[in-house]
Fold this protein.
Amino acid sequence: MESNKIENIIVKYLSNQASFSDLDELEKWVEDPKNEKLFQSYIRTNYAVDYNLKKFDSEKIKTMLSNQIAQEQKVFRLKKIRQRLLYGAAATLIIGVLSVNFFFKDSLFNTPTENAPIVVNNKIEIGTDKATLTLEDGSVIALQKGNNFQTKTAQSNGEKITYNVGKQNSSKIAFNYLTIPRGGQFHLVLSDGTEVWLNSETQLKYPVSFQEGKTRQVELVYGEAYFDVSSSTKHKGSKFKVLNQSQEVEVVGTEFNIKAYRDETNIYTTLVEGKVVISNQGKNRILKPREQSNLNLQDKTIAISKVDVYNEISWKDGVFSFRKKPLGEIMKVLSRWYDVEVQFENQDLKKVGFNGVLGKEQKLEDILKIIKKFKVIKEYEIKNKKVILK
């Protein structure tokens, strides 16, 4: 196979653009032992990858990659090629924002000299595990990475809080609130075994324990959360519901993601496995796996469409994956994680769309440098906690 042709296929694979025929051809090529080193050289000679490989965390990347592979295998049904391409796919996760369109247009091997951006009192920190727990008596506890905490009903290691397995027999339900600030994330295990991953700027209201035989119910007050619900068969058929300001999601035992931020006019519910029923103003809509409902809060209409599930849920695995997303939406996601304000000098930049994958442990300035290298923006400034894109 010609080197240019295989290199193009590799790039297409890393950016999730490869067709079935491309993957078949690549599989045969990689299976030849003499091509394995050549394949790795295509990855390692990329300037952006080499830059980030200095901080390569192989174990964490493998964990992220295994989640992505689980989704991809449902579509491509590949086995051998996934193991052989571990190096390349893992590298993509840490490249940062990668625009497929700009990749072919501007070679990274000939990067022009950059003008140094203006950076004033740069105190932008990478997001981390932290949350505020409000107990039933109104007391507030700060949870953060590295600090342990324990009550009669729950314990936390600073990255996750787990409630004791049990049932509540009294008629009075005790509720806790878990609030995630900008620049934070947290993992919650409810008393029924349901796991919830909470994204930045999110608040969840939930009972300390559920009443036996009654519907298990929590409220996503605002923000984004991923639910892996403990099956109703383990709880005498008890249903599980997630309430929100404008909709109700009823499940039996499934995995799904809800995105309902206060500064957005849409609520997105994405189903990974199982079945959920979306209720709004007396109308019910059923979601199938790999479908997403889009509730417009202005006209109260619900649209359902097929989506790439991994792009919607990768945030919980330490990755932001964007596909054909405008820069305005991407920067809104990053602003929450890095707790910054973003300003566009040129409003047209908000509409520039591209594909990208980035690790959540990267510095924001490194991401901005990569965006600039691909000429998505001309320049940027960082003033305290404000980012200005030009």
User: Anything to note?
Assistant: DSSP finds eleven helices and 26 strands in the chain. Residues 58-76 form the longest helix (19 residues).
